[in-house]
């Protein structure tokens, strides 16, 4: 039996001398060298006790060795579980307890805090640092550079990615080999990615966009990747003349537009700029097209589904829309009013369900395979999907999903706070910014700095409110529900 994802993305590159990853230090890792490193890593992982179907949780800096770890996880038939590097120990504790990984890979600086959490579930711990060193790398030394790939079925799990829920409890989306492979194949064909491409990769690799959309498509096509540890405008501007393709979030493009070095000449070889993970403002579309002479291609996806729709490569790219369904993927609107309805999707890209949450899976995934996204949209006469809002109170800031309930729980636990409301407000740079208002208990003094410090110990930095204000009462409707639309209108900074 084959290993679908490994056989398609990785195995064909054995012996391939072409450049794969080009790091910030200028070092080039060829495809063949990458595959040899992957095999050595596979031996190290099995030596650490990881078996087929086991989860490998990873909270480590973005490195070339981390990509090797991803490939080796697939080769040994295990399940890759990336975690945001900004998550606090409290947050990581939940993921480890829920997923019960066989191995946790973390930065050396986090070892003392995370090792006890891993011990609670019997997981081994190895380290990986920003310079590619650590006990994980040490474990690969002297290992054979070939490994007998572990067979897996198309519907076996390849990855487990957590996505926050409005209740504050994160959900583990179970993604199969076929989910990931079918989506990569569709995107490579749609965006015409080939071995001649050079991709600027400045995205994090702990979510779908940077890990699967960017890396899986490059691997499938045999493209080279300028692998940047983080978004760095100077590095991107320097690499644009040598590259052909870039994937980013709206914040990347707004910040690049602020740089006068972004010109048509700089981008002369660039054939495609892609944006996702958050809505791109029409003003950004227009400004970029005016500056560069080409429109950014916007697409739409979710952790549970990978990519769902995309504006076309050759056809018209319509600002404010996320394009047409990918080949083999169906999109429909249900409970529509005035043309706006709930977006549902069905296809080989749709996940298998939520880890340890059969009730939530049954709630969001219909028996006939249609997944209820929670987004509200409309479809124009040309078939292009426009996302007009979210049924849930999701905030997307700089490409990160942020759910208010989790922040509200932390705020409400602060001394003196009676209740709170968290909502997103438009932000020209980040797409949306997190805003919080609190009602203080009678006789208590409002101290925004103290509250921010209090919640900062349990929440990742990207979830922290840009501003915390106080109000006498929260606006409510006749049913007692907080009217966040009223708050957004009152606190809209634009």
Structural description of this entry:
α7 (177-191) crosses α8. The protein has a nine-stranded mixed β-sheet with strand order 2-1-10-9-11-12-13-14-15. Strands 4-3-5-6 form a four-stranded parallel β-sheet, sandwiched between helices. Strands 16-17-19-20 form a four-stranded antiparallel β-sheet, with no helix packed on it. The longest helix is centred in the first third of the chain and has 17 residues, at 31-47. It has helices at residues 4-9, 31-47, 64-75, 89-99, 111-120, 135-140, 177-191, 208-221, 233-239, 250-257, 282-292, 358-364, 404-412, 448-456, 484-491, and strands at residues 19-22, 28-30, 55-59, 79-82, 103-106, 124-127, 157-163, 171-176, 198-201, 224-227, 245-248, 272-275, 297-302, 306-310, 324-325, 330-337, 340-346, 353-354, 371-379, 385-390, 395-397, 400-402, 417-427, 431-440, 467-470. By secondary structure, the protein is an alpha/beta fold.
Mean pLDDT comes to 93
Shape: globular
Query: What is the helix fraction of residues, given as a range?
Result: 25-40%
Can you tell me the residue ranges where pLDDT is under 50 for at least 5 consecutive residues? none
Please give the number of β-strands.
25
The fraction of residues in strands falls at 25-35%
Distance between the termini: 57 Å
Strand order of the largest sheet: 2-1-10-9-11-12-13-14-15
The main pleated sheet reads as:
9 strands, mixed
Gyration radius over CA: 23 Å
Give the structural class.
Answer: alpha/beta
The total of helices stands at 15
């Amino acid at each position: 039996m084959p290993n679908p994802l490994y056989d398609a993305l990785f195995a064909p590159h054995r012996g391939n001398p072409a450049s794969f990853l080009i790091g910030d230090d200028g070092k080039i890792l060829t495809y063949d060298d990458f595959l040899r490193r992957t095999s050595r890593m596979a031996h190290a992982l099995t030596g650490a006790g990881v078996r087929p179907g086991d989860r490998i949780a990873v909270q480590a800096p973005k490195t070339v060795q981390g990509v090797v770890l991803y490939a080796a996880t697939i080769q040994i038939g295990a399940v890759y579980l990336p975690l945001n590097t900004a998550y606090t120990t409290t947050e990581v504790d939940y993921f480890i307890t829920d997923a019960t990984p066989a191995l946790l890979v973390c930065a050396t600086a986090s070892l003392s805090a995370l090792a006890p959490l891993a011990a609670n579930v019997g997981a081994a711990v190895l380290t990986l640092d920003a310079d590619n060193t650590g006990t994980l790398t040490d474990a690969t030394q002297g290992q054979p550079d070939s490994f007998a790939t572990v067979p897996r079925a198309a519907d076996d799990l390849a990855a487990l990615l957590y996505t926050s829920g409005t209740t504050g409890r994160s959900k583990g989306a179970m993604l199969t080999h076929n989910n990931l492979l079918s989506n990569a194949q569709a995107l490579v064909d749609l965006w015409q990615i080939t071995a001649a491409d050079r991709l600027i990769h400045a995205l994090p690799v702990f979510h779908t966009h940077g890990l699967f959309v960017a890396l899986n498509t490059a691997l499938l096509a045999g493209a080279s990747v300028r692998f940047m540890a983080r978004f760095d405008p100077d590095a991107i501007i320097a690499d644009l003349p040598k590259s052909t393709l870039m994937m980013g979030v709206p914040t990347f493009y707004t910040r690049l537009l602020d740089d006068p070095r972004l010109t048509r000449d700089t981008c002369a070889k660039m054939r495609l700029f892609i944006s996702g993970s958050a809505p791109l403002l029409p003003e950004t579309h227009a400004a970029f097209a005016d500056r560069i002479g080409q429109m950014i291609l916007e697409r739409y996806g979710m952790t549970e589904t990978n990519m769902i729709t995309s504006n076309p490569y050759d056809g018209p790219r319509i600002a404010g829309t996320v394009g047409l369904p990918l080949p083999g993927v169906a999109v429909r609107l249900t409970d529509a009013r005035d043309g706006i309805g709930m977006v549902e999707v069905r296809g080989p890209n749709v996940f298998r369900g939520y880890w340890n949450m059969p009730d939530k899976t049954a709630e969001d995934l219909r028996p006939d395979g249609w997944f209820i996204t929670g987004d509200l949209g409309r479809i124009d006469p040309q078939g292009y999907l426009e996302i007009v809002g979210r049924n849930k109170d999701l905030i997307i800031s700089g490409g990160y999903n942020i759910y208010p309930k989790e922040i509200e729980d932390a705020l409400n636990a602060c001394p003196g706070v009676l209740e709170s409301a968290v909502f997103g407000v438009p932000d020209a740079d980040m797409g949306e910014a997190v805003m919080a208002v609190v009602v203080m208990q009678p006789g208590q003094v409002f101290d925004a700095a103290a509250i921010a410090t209090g919640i900062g110990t349990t929440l990742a930095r990207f979830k922290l409110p840009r501003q915390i204000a106080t109000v006498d009462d929260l606006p409510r409707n006749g049913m007692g529900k907080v009217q966040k639309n009223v708050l957004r209108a009152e606190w809209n900074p634009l």
